[in-house]
TrEMBL record:
InterPro entries in the record: CDP-alcohol_PTase-I, HAD-like_sf, HAD-SF_hydro_IIA, HAD-SF_hydro_IIA_CECR5, HAD_sf
A GO term from the CC aspect: mitochondrion
Family under the similarity heading: Belongs to the HAD-like hydrolase superfamily.
Region (Disordered): 459-481
UniProt keyword Phosphoprotein, yes or no: no
Family annotation (Pfam families): Hydrolase_6
This protein's name: Haloacid dehalogenase-like hydrolase domain-containing 5
One GO-annotated biological process of the protein: glycerophospholipid biosynthetic process
Biased segments, Basic and acidic residues type: 468-481
Keywords: Signal
Length: 512
């Protein structure tokens, strides 16, 4: 018995489906079961056969064919020619189902060493070169904990973008960066990402937590009190708000309001202002620096119907409109433990309002992940990006990569549910009037991918495993989102961003 025959007892079959727009049948096998695939021997056997074939001493048609495929694959991988006809999609071992869209899968037998070893939820699959036909999928990428930690880029993210960007420095698929950060200008965030990731990020690819406020045009002409830090006024104006007042300006106009810090209390009793135009709404754009000042003055505005110099016997309810973004209770920077996020500030404000008035603080709009508003906004930017690039194929699948189960995973899963529910007719009101103006969507799914480079750690406090003695992990989500534990379960868990891209390319049959 030859070595080849011995190894033949160790057969393993790899089924590669060809997605060929022209439907050209290069092989004799199909997936109907009437023409069952040949089992293919081990790698050693194949390599031996291929060596024979390449040296012109082929012993079998099967080996010659394998050698042709191998040469073709090698040549494609080295050249990465964009116009290579047809494409190869690797299916998980044993998958023999028909190709989506009615394409006839052609089964061939061919060995390649496993290229991917994915996370605990990842499928193991093999990847063959794929034609770079227009993408039908796009990425929604979180930033902190996925691409960067503090001001440092995560090396796996740089590696991932080597796969995502072509030799001309252009993205091969539509990508938007969806962060719950908000205390920065959109174009500055784009510049920051460009220098960290090594390719040019367009400001239109950056979605800050407050970006969907552009859709709330009914409030853009109102006089709005804005809370947060950083370039607050510039951000509010960029969102469309034409008449904004900062908390500092309000404090200066009414110095007796801010009394917590003894050092900042007025030394004399100032005259009350009567010429200060009423505030007509509140924008909460991010965590402020002096929480006690902002909590006090926002409460004053809500309780006085925008006239803190007058005071009211009874607080109006409903109160003035409040738009808020970034519900993250915690976020991850360089410190080993998570930091307070804007969600913690909102929790304080809601608790104080309820304690003082006996009623619930209400939001006209609550955005940033996991709000569906943010995902609808992101989906629209992905569609626009694909149009600008001239990619005719509609974007049907979104992959959302994040490090926070409560915002990234919860949001992506909730959006997926929304897409499923509204597949035939999107009648659900997502809460923002302006969204009705968006183009109809072709998106069918949103897949959540959780990485372990940020808030989530398989063994840390954000672990999805219930802690000992408790049935469920604590709910860090916002009050207005019902806790559905299943929505915190990621479709896939991988180590880092690079593995996330490998996973998606594998699922989509793309070469990395
Ligand atoms: Mg994050």
């Amino acid at each position: 018995m030859t070595g080849t025959q011995k190894n033949a007892n160790n057969y393993s079959s790899i089924f590669l489906h060809k997605w060929d727009a022209g439907g050209k049948d290069y092989n004799s096998r199909d997936a109907s079961g009437t023409n069952p695939p040949l089992s293919f021997p081990t790698a050693d056997w194949l390599r031996a056969e291929v060596d024979l074939a390449e040296s012109g001493e082929a012993q079998s048609t099967r080996a010659r064919r394998a050698a042709e495929w191998l040469r073709s694959a090698r040549s494609w991988r080295s050249a990465r020619r964009p116009g290579f006809g047809g494409g190869w999609r690797a299916q998980p071992m044993g998958s023999r189902g028909p190709a989506p869209g009615g394409a006839t899968p052609i089964v061939c037998f061919f060995f390649l060493p496993p290229l991917l070893s994915l996370g605990s939820h990842g499928d193991h699959c093999l990847l063959l070169p794929s034609v770079q036909s227009p993408p039908t999928f796009g990425f929604l990428l979180d930033i902190d904990g996925v691409l960067v930690r503090g001001h440092k880029v995560i090396p796996a993210a740089v590696e991932a973008f080597r796969k995502l960007v072509n030799s001309q420095g252009q993205l091969r698929v539509p990508v938007v960066f969806v962060t719950n950060a908000g205390n920065i200008l959109q174009h500055h965030k784009a510049q920051e990402l460009s220098s960290l990731l090594g390719f040019k990020v367009d400001p239109n690819q950056v979605i800050l937590s407050h970006s969907p406020m552009k859709l709330f045009s009914q409030f853009h002409a109102r006089r709005m009190l804005v809370s947060g830090q950083g370039p607050l006024v510039e951000n509010a104006r960029a969102l469309g708000f034409q008449n904004v007042v900062t908390v500092d300006e309000l404090r200066t106009a009414f110095p007796v309001l801010d009394m917590v810090d003894l050092e900042r209390r007025p030394k004399t009793t100032p005259l009350l202002r009567s010429d200060f135009p009423a505030i007509e709404g509140v924008l909460l754009l991010g965590e402020p620096v002096r929480w006690e000042t902002n909590l006090q003055l926002i409460m004053d505005i809500l309780l006085s119907n925008g006239n803190p110099g007058t005071g009211l016997a009874t607080a109006p309810y409903p109160h003035l409109p409040v738009l808020a973004c970034n519900m993250d209770l915690l976020w991850m920077a360089e410190a080993k433990m998570p930091r307070f996020g804007h969600g913690t500030f909102l929790l304080c404000l809601e608790t104080i309002y309820r304690k003082v008035t006996g009623k619930e603080l209400r939001y006209e709009g609550l955005m940033g992940k996991p709000s569906i508003l943010t995902y609808l906004y992101a989906e629209d930017l992905i569609r626009q990006q694909a149009e600008r690039r001239g990619w005719a194929a509609p974007i049907q699948k979104l992959y959302a990569v994040g490090d926070n189960p409560m915002s990234d995973v919860y949001g992506a899963n909730m959006f997926h549910q929304y897409l499923q529910k509204s597949k035939h007719e999107r009648t659900e009101d997502p809460g923002a009037g302006g969204l009705g103006k968006q183009q109809p969507s072709a998106t069918q799914s949103c897949t959540s991918i959780l990485v372990c480079t940020g808030v989530y750690s398989p063994s840390g406090p954000e672990s999805l495993e219930p802690p000992q003695g408790r049935e469920e992990p604590p709910f860090h989500g916002h009050r207005d989102f019902n806790f559905s534990p299943e929505l915190m379960e990621a479709s896939h868990i991988v180590n880092d961003m690079n593995e996330a891209v490998q996973l998606v390319f594998c699922k989509e049959g793309w070469a990395s």
